[in-house]
Write a structure and sequence with these properties.
Elements lengths: L1 H36 L9 E5 L5 H10 L6 H10 L2 H4 L3 E5 L5 H10 L5 E5 L5 H11 L4 H8 L2 H4 L16 E5 L5 H15 L2 H9 L4 H14 L6 H14 L6 H8 L9 H4 L23 H8 L8 E4 L7 E4 L2 H17 L5
Antiparallel strand pairs: 1-2, 3-4, 5-6
Length: 350
Amino acid sequence: MNPPKKKSQFGKIALILLAILVIASVVILPGVYKKYIKANTNVSKKTYLYIPSKASYHDVLDSINKNHLLINETSFLSLAKDRKLETRFKSGKYPIEKGMNNRQILNMIIAGNQEPITLSFRNIRLKENFAGIAAKKLEFDSLSLINLLDSASFIEKYGFTKDNMYTMFIPNSYEMYWNISAEDFFIRMNKEYQKFWTKDRLAKAEKLNLTPQKVAILASIVDGEALMDKEMPIIAGLYLNRLDKGIKLEADPTVIFANNDFTIRRVLFKHLRKESPYNTYIHTGLPPGPIMMPSIKAIDAVLNPENHNYIYMCAKEDFSGYHNFSSTLSEHVANAKKFQAALNARNIKK
C-alpha cells in the first residue's frame, strides 16, 4: 500500500508548486514587466531631459517630474534605486522618446549616452553676440565664455591677443555635447582653427606676408564691403594693393565699427573723425582685430585675391550691391559723386 501514498505526496507537492507559480505570475511578473519592460514615457514625440553638470540627484528627479516625462514614476524610482542611479547618473542632454522603458532610460543616463547638438554660426559682428548664440545652444552661460575671451593670460597660450582672438572662430556647423564647458569649447574651436589653416592656406598667407590672424582681419573688412560674393577677390586685391603701397585702407565698415553704430547707412565726415584704432581713415594698416567674424569665403578671397591695379572703390549708384572700381583718384571722385547724388535722391542722409 506504500507506493500509492508516495504518489499522493508528489501530487500535493506538484499542486503547491503550481500554486506558487500561479501566484508569482499573477503578483510578481506584472511588477517585473512594468519595472523592466513596459513602455513608460509620457511623450508623443522626442523630448529632452537636461541634466546640468552640477545637478544633484534631487534635481534629476525634479526635472523628470516637472516635465511629466514618465507614465509611472514609482516603477522608475524602484529600478533607479536598484541600479544606484543616485551615484551613477551623468550630466548631458538625453532624448526621451515614445515607447522607451525604464531600463532604456536608466542605461542611457548611467552610460552618458547623450545626444550631441549642432552649433552653427556665421556673420556674427561682435564676440558678445557670438557668446550669446553659443550659450543658447550649450550649457555654459555667455559670461563664462566672454571672461575667457577677455583673459589675456588664457588666450596667449593659444597664440592670440585680446584684440585678434575672435579670428580663431571659423564660421561653420559643429557637432558637440550640450554640457561642454566654456574652456573645452574654446579648446575645441582652437582645434577646428588648426584644421582649417592647412599647409596650403598657411603658404598663401606667408606669400602675402600676412599671419593667419591678419588674413582674417582683412577678410572681415572684405566681408563688410562685399554684398556680392563674386566681388570678394576683387575687393581683397584692392586692399592688398593699398597695404603694399602704404595707403590707408579707408574702409567704411571699419568706421562704422569704430563708431559702434551699425545703423549708419551713409558715412559722414563726423564719423570719419572718430578716434579709434579701428578707424582706417585715421590709421594706416590693418586694425588690431576683426570688425566681424569673417566668412570662409572672405578668408579664401584674401588668400586668392584678384590681381589688378585698383586702389579705389565706391558703391554703384544703382544700389545693386556691386561696386565701381578704379585705379585713379579722378575716376574715384566721379564715381563717388554719382553715388552721393543717388543717396541724396533717395533722401538717405545718415
